[in-house]
Amino acid sequence: MLPDSVHLERTTPAFTADTVPAGLQRAHRLAPGRWGRLRVDEGAVTFVLEGSGESRRLTAGETQVIEPEVAHHVEVEPGASFAVEIHR
Which one of 3.40.225.10, 2.60.120.10, 1.10.10.60, 3.40.50.12780 gives the CATH number of domain 8-87? Predict the structure, then answer.
């Protein structure tokens, strides 16, 4: 869950397997004080935590909170569409 103290700063465009930036598919982190919420609109996307290797496959309608400074990446299945909300 996102903290009550944060507010939506921006939302990325919708990404697909063909348009997802390479940087989201390899280890990256949100800046200090920034939280994310990955929202899957179609298909499936797997969210992977780099430190533990723990992963969660998300399907249409599901979301995943992304904590600040936590290394992660996404794996996008063909036919998927998703966006990331950035909160501060």
Answer: 2.60.120.10
